[in-house]
Amino acid sequence: xxxxxxxxxxxxxxxxxxxxxxxxxxxxxxxxxxxxxxxxxxxxxxxxxxxxxxxxxxxxxxxxxxxxxxxxxxxxxxxxxxxxxxxxxxxxxxxxxxxxxxxxxxxxxxxxxxxxxxxxxxxxxxxxxxxxxxxxxxxxxxxxxxxxxxxxxxxxxxxxxxxxxxxxxxxxxxxxxxxxxxxxxxxxxxxxxxxxxxxxxxxxxxxxxxxxxxxxxxxxxxxxxxxxxxxxxxxxxxxxx
Length: 241
Hints:
Blueprint: H1 2-11, H2 15-37, H3 51-72, H4 74-81, H5 85-118, H6 129-136, H7 138-156, H8 159-176, H9 184-188, H10 192-200, H11 214-238
Organism: Saccharopolyspora ipomoeae
Protein name: ABC transporter permease
Keywords: Membrane, Transmembrane, Transmembrane helix
């Protein structure tokens, strides 16, 4: 518990996480409000279109949580005070993942609530398991994404490099994979963020041919993110801080 408290204090000791949280909430909710303001009706899935904006900012927040420690050298003092690097990194990741989960849920239900207020005539009721998954599922996706970002941050150690890799992969690389001759379309179906989208919507352009169902897609996404984190942990143990 002491490590968790320490990591929580370190995370919120700078302004960057606060600004990231504000942006991660304001961008998706504002985007949904803009859509609702200029629409006569809106579907439940449409209320969650803006979650991608929040996800990108959350990836940056999670990467900053680890890379800023390397930038300012505080990670050395942390490892001297607590030689068990695994415990330190587990605590840091847990704090960031829980924060990302909370951000994701507020983002999702905030967007849903804004749409419901602005367009009360639209059918936005949460009555089925699939409808709840589309909204409440945003939080777990954010949490696993934060774990991935911490893992990438442990591997690269530099904020610019980690953020670049995370954003380019999620926004560009997974879309370009489909252009690879013969295997591109099949390979794209197994990309982690494509799987995350399949979990949330289950009705995207690739959903009909997706190899896994929604919950299996979330499990796959989680396994990939944890796998990257474990690789980052092994590398951290093998090199100097």
